[in-house]
Amino acid sequence: MTFWQKLFSHKNKINTVVICVLACLALSGCANPFKGGKDSISVVLTTGFAEDEVFRIEDISCSLAEVELYLVNTQNSYQSTLGGSIWDADPGLTESLKTSCLARLAQIKTMVLLAQHNGIMLDDSEKKAAQNAAKEYYESLSEADIKAMDNVTCDTIQTLYEEQALAGKLYEYTIRDINPEVSDDEARTLTVQQILLKTYETDDSGNRTEMSTDSKAKVYSKMKEIQAQLDEGASFESMVETYNEAEEGTVSFGKGEVDVNLETVAFNLSTDQISDIIETEDGYMLIKCVTTFDKEETELNKVRIAEERRSQAFAEEYDEFAKGLTREINSQLWDSITLCDDPEVTTKDFFDIYNKYFED
């Protein structure tokens, strides 16, 4: 997976994959980079904008067409997976989506400035790839799509693709000499079978409510009964099938990936050993160690940890550069932007087409 796929893939967000680069950047997630805060960049609100100019960072600007392109593609990507009614479930989702797109574009523009600062440019083949990608995407658009994206042009699409490619090239340049050593112990991944009895309830909207003390006590008593059956010789596998309330009966994890109480117990079990009852944020658990060292998963975890460290190194350079920049936002234009409600607007392939032309 390319840097840009990891950094900005809408599919990753939908599946809640942890994107270590975004997590490390000071202006990550849905944080609005044009509002105050300890991580915000100096902001100057001004009236000296072009009619279609949404924001400006130093001497690089972002147009309404660019914002609408990101917004429409991201909106349609979510809707294709979760359905068009998702925006009705939580009114705050609309603003979160807008702010997420704003943050993405602000990060891109900042990274372009940093690339220029470091003398990094696209070569002719990369520019040609951006041109071809833009042509393919533009030709896929309907008249309704183009209109919804403020009459976006092929040239604007090509510029966005070039900026994305330059941001990815900057990242690879920055981490080129960073090869962190990760030990087996640090990356060790184990596999357990689990029985979870939840100590919370969820309503139809997915909102979580903790059980009362009395209800938790009843859950604990039930877990004690399960433990007694295991002590009497019942198979752990059958108890998992009968009682487990977690989505999976067998899971693999490394250090820092699960509840701290679960981690502490799990990493001190030997193969086939069954734990005592563990209290976690989700409920009471019993686990059985399947393997104390999953070699394949450990090797994958080494790669993930190494990439996190490279991303952190990049984030440090990014933050140091970005904190001195001035950002200006056209508040009136930004506030007027809304989600598209035209069913004829279906485009959602902008990011996928980029990945097609700029894969590793």
Automatic annotation (TrEMBL):
InterPro entries named among the record's database cross-references: PPIase_dom_sf, PPIase_PpiC, PrsA_foldase
Domain of life: Bacteria
Endpoints of the signal sequence: 1-31
Coiled coil: none
GO molecular function, one term: peptidyl-prolyl cis-trans isomerase activity
Matches recorded under PROSITE patterns: PPIC_PPIASE_2, PROKAR_LIPOPROTEIN
Keyword Isomerase: yes
PpiC domain boundaries: 187-291
Gene3D superfamilies assigned to the protein according to its UniProt record, in alphabetical order: 3.10.50.40
Keywords for the protein's UniProt record, in alphabetical order: Isomerase, Rotamase, Signal
Pfam family membership, one: Rotamase
Protein name: Foldase protein PrsA
